[in-house]
Structures are given as C-alpha cells and as structure tokens.
Amino acid sequence: MSSEVNRQWLLAKRPQGMVGEHNFEYAETPIPQPGAGEVLVRNHYLSFDPTQRGWMEDRESYMPPVQIGEPMRAGSVGRVVTSNHPDFAAGDWVQGTGGWQDYFVSNGRGAVPLSKVPEGVPPTYVLSVLGVTGLTAYFGLLDLGEPKPGQTVLVSGAAGATGSIAGQIARIKGCRVVGIAGGAEKCAWLTGPARFDAAIDYRNDNVRARLAETCPDRVNIFFDNVGGDILEAGLDHLAMHARVVLCGGISAYNATEPPPGPRNLLNLIIMRGRMEGFIVLDYLPRFGEAVKEILGWIESGELVHEEDVQEGFEKIPATLTRLFTGKNRGKQLLKLDGLD
Fold first, then answer.
1. What is the pTM of this model?
2. Number of H helices, E strands in the chain
3. For residues 231 and 43, what is the distance between their CA atoms, to the nearest angstrom?
4. Which residue blocks in 140-249 are alpha helix, DSSP H?
C-alpha cells in the first residue's frame, strides 16, 4: 500500500451560501479492513458533481444527507486491494461511491452498487461520459425529451459534463442544437468539436435576444441544468407541445435564499408544453443499454467529451468549488496522489 493511513476530507459544517474549503476538515484514520463478503478499494479518481452540494444540506432528498464528521460522499473509481467477495478480485478496476478518502470498504451493494470497469474502457470514462453524468444526459434527453429529427433543442449548462453530452445526443438524433454556456472559449468548443449549431454566451450576450436569433422556430426541447433566469428565458421561447427536461438548477445550489420561481410557468399551458424532473438512479436497470450506445458513438467519432482532471488530495475541497465558479469544462475529476 502506498500510504499507512487513510486520508479523508470530512464534512465539518453545513454550507450557508457558497460551499468552500471551510466546510471540510482533513483527517487521518487507520486503513479499514474488509470483513466477510467485502472488498477494500483504493480510490484513484474522484468525481465532482453539482448534486454533492445538495447532499450537504440537512434535508430529505433522493439520498440521505452526508452527516457532520463523515467523509464527503463522492463517486470514485479505483482498484480492489483485498477481496473477500466472490464477484471481485484483487487488482480489479471498480466504480463505486468511495467518497473523499484514499480507501473504502464495500459489500458491493448500495444506491450505486460497486461494479467492474468494462474491459478496455479507460477508468475515468465510468465517472464521466459513461458514468452518471453521461447516463443522465442519455435518459433525460431521450426518454423525457423525445427528440425528433429537425426539432430545435436548447441546452443550458451546455459545456458541462451532462449538458455537453445531452446536446450531442440531440445532434446525433437529427436535431438542431443550441447551447448556453459561460465565456467565449466554452462557446467555441460547443460550435467546434461538439458540433452544436449555435452557442449563447450568457456572460456577454443578451440571452433573450440571442434565443430569438438562434431559435427562429422556437424551442421544442429545453434540457435545463441551470434554473433561475435561464429557465425563465427558455420558457419564453417554447414551441407548441415543447418538452422541458429539468435536470438541475446549479444557479440556486449556493443561494442563501430560495430563488423565486419562474414568473412565466403559464407559458406551458399556452404552448401545451410539459415540464418534468427526473433522477438518473431511477434508470439503474437500463444503465447497460445506455453505456453500450454511448460507447458506440464515441468509437464512431459522433460524440466527443472532455475531462478536467485536477490532481492532489489537498486540492479536493477546492476542486468542488470549480463547478460553481465556471472553471471546469466537461467532467470535473481529481486524480489522487500517492498511487503506485
């Protein structure tokens, strides 16, 4: 083993407003030992997702809140060190919810069960394009959005890990795709490698004016990751029988007060539209289907993705804040140091 202790970042206090390093506390504990039917896993990469901010709140949600003094919850990929489980062997690459620590013990079960990384697949893929963010894009866009060739799809948070995949799947399905992102560099990536038809820079453009310009036939599907003013602007440009897919609301995750709801929800009535939220874990039995199709698009060159990989255990808390300050493009990951 590369370390004689298990380094951890614990939740020290619940955030008020913007999450920061002050919400976490560094700790060192003995390396846990697996019991019967369990495995010891050494984390190699950690996943960072906006939903982690919600897990820090002391409120009911689709997963229980992280408790004060517990390691911060996070998706991870690593290698089995010791196995007392018949389905896993030492050396296997596995994906799980290992949290902000070097080592964790698992019995293979849980909301996101421990699973082997498919043969030949880069380990980071199962946290990014083939992981929860890619699967969220797949099921949200296809099952809730129901895209049809020639329709216009609007994606907010379009340069992020989920939005970038959702927009590309829409393009693969024959749709015209417009993305909203922050900054000229991200917008250039959308209309370049990701092959969106147009991009709106919410930091420098008049979003409503650009929506009218880039979506002259209005919006058939709005895949929203942002909420707030961006959601309201999108609702003003819906086409008849539009579908609004509520994937996330990153604009409100660090707000000190609940944001006001969209003032134009009645547009859904006027345009006979549908707005629906979802949680990707509801599709767990179909994950294999999505992984197979997404991997095929990657291999054919139809779909591209980016991974923003930070490195170093000490950078873990600061890496989470990158999601809320617009510093990442694509999937935010961190590689742990001290690996063999």
1. 0.91
2. 9, 15
3. 37
4. 163-172, 184-191, 207-214, 228-235
Q: Which two tokens stand for residue 224?
A: 């929203």
DSSP string, 3-19: -SSEEEEEE-S--SSS-
Provide mean pLDDT across the span 37-59. Answer: 95
Name the strands in the sheet holding 152-156, side by side, starting at the edge strand that comes first in the sequence: 198-201, 176-181, 152-156, 219-224, 238-246, 274-277
Contacts for 319 with CB less than 8 Å, ≥ 6 apart: 46, 48, 310, 332, 334
Residue type, 136: T
Distances in whole angstroms, Cα of residue 102 to Cα of each of 77, 205, 248, 258 = 11, 43, 29, 35
pLDDT digits (tens, 9 = 90+) for 97-111: 999 999 999 999 988
Q: Which CATH code for domain 6-127+306-335?
A: 3.90.180.10
List pLDDT tens digits, range 120-134. 999 999 999 999 999
CA 135/CA 131 separation, integer angstroms:
6
Residue type, 171: R
The closest of 179, 237, 176, 181 to 209, measured between CA atoms, is 237
Q: Are 30 and 6 in contact (CB under 8 A)?
A: yes
Nearest residue to 199 (alpha-carbon basis) of 107, 239, 207: 207
In the structure encoding, which two tokens stand for residue 223, read together?
């895949």
Q: Do 195 and 258 form a contact (C-beta atoms < 8 A)?
A: no
CA distance linking residue 161 with residue 331, whole number of Å? 4
107: number of Cβ within 10 Å: 15
In angstroms, the first-to-last Cα distance of the chain is: 8
CA dist 57 and 321 (Å) reads: 16
CATH class of the 132-281 domain in this structure: alpha beta
What residues form DSSP beta bridges with 177?
A: 153
Please report, for the chain, the start and end positions of each structural domain, with discontinuous segments joined by +.
Answer: 6-127+306-335, 132-281
Q: Dig out the tokens for 64 from the structure.
A: 């229980």
* Residues, the chain: 340
